[in-house]
Amino acid sequence: MNWRQEVDNRKEAFLTDLQGLLQIPSVLDESKSAPDMPFGPDVRRALDYMFEIGERDGFKTKDVGGYAGHLEYGDGEEIVGILCHLDVVPAGEGWTYGAFNPTIKDGKIIARGSNDDKGPSMAAYYGLRIVKELGLPLSKRVRLIAGCDEESEWRCVREYFKQEQMPTYGFAPDADFPIINAEKGLYDGVLKQLPIQRTSGAAYHLVSFMSGERPNMVPDFAKAELKTDEVLEEKFEAYLEKYEADGTCVYDRGTYTFTMKGKAAHAMEPDNGISAAYVLAGFLLHLPLDIQGERYIELVRHVFADSRGISLGIEASDETGDLTINGGVFRYNTEERTATVNIRYPYTAKFEERLQNLREIALSLGFELKTRQHMPPHHVAEDHPLVKTLADVYERQTGEHANLMAIGGGTYARSLQAGVAFGALFPGAKDVAHQVDEYMEIEDLLRAAAIYAEAIYELAK
Ligand SMILES: [Zn+2]
Q1: What distance in angstroms lies between residue 89's CA and the mean position of ligand 1's atoms?
Q2: Are residues 154 and 61 part of one domain?
Q3: SS3 of residue 304 by DSSP
Q4: How far out from the chain centre does Cα 389 lie?
Q5: What's the gap in Å between 55 CA and the centre of ligand 1?
Q6: Would the N or C end of the chain have less CB density within 10 A of its end CB?
């Protein structure tokens, strides 16, 4: 079977269908949510658009309350699932041709969603369409499941799988080729300072300490206010010099305002960044602060001393990577005294024990740890038929080795019981998801569609 030839025979139709989908500004709009359109009318339109295409091509369709839906082909008890999503992140400013005005230029298709995830979704749809049009015998049903809330809260898949059968196995074309078969556990928590009765007559009173906006980012800026009569300029300059740090210090009527720059990075690898909070806290640590402030700064320095949790004794590692810990948002003022904790841990780590350790350390520093979100690790074994089949197909079509990847983030595949992320970004391709002028190479979409067609056939035959 020449899968690529089958895709090329349908190239014009593929691009037309994709452009129609890309024209729909399917951004979450809860202010306009209504029955059957929980995420607003534009997201609803994208789902209806896929249903129309599916019905045109002879697929069974099912709407699950506007949260998600599927296009189905074949017979059998078991289901192969292909999990896509039709919602996109907001456009943002500065598009060359308009975010929802899909434009083909230099072999690229440029539009919001071209890369994440409408382009790959349409490639998977054409893979399924080819299998159907070739009339190949299948022993399982194949469902292209289209979610409508991937970019926000995944309410789509939660609602969908409440009502619909979980596929035996499947893949999500919403990340990278070759195959992501392991995703770390994700823990999001908040450390809250407990009230301290005791007061002290310290010469320095920490008024505020603020840093970061998002728990999953290394903060690149921090600011602290300190009330004192002492003179600190020289000490601060010396600190900046010693640690090659970039900060400022302004004194005004009894209050110092310090700022510090760091380097932003995703919490998947905090070592790619420099925490401005940690650096600024390093300066404050050696000043005799009021007891509440002193404890807060101690927490910043102790809990986030290293990205692997070594200072906390919670480190863990396996072939899917190291446990990492990130402090993303720090708020210290009269109303709020908190710090967020974002931990990503490999699937073999005994996390409950480690969490208990962290809880005890936090408590000894005067903080309680509250869980906000916890997603267990996701892992499909190397010798699982799903992984072996996809690897074979990928290697056959690309001539490249299908190495398995483990990541610290969470891909859509983890909402399948046995699911891996499989494309559609090829190794070396630029990841422009969520960016202005998001694009996808048309050649890559066609290659992906051919891989998906064969993969669907092999998984469902
Ligand atoms: Zn996506």
Answers
A1: 9
A2: yes
A3: coil
A4: 26
A5: 24
A6: N
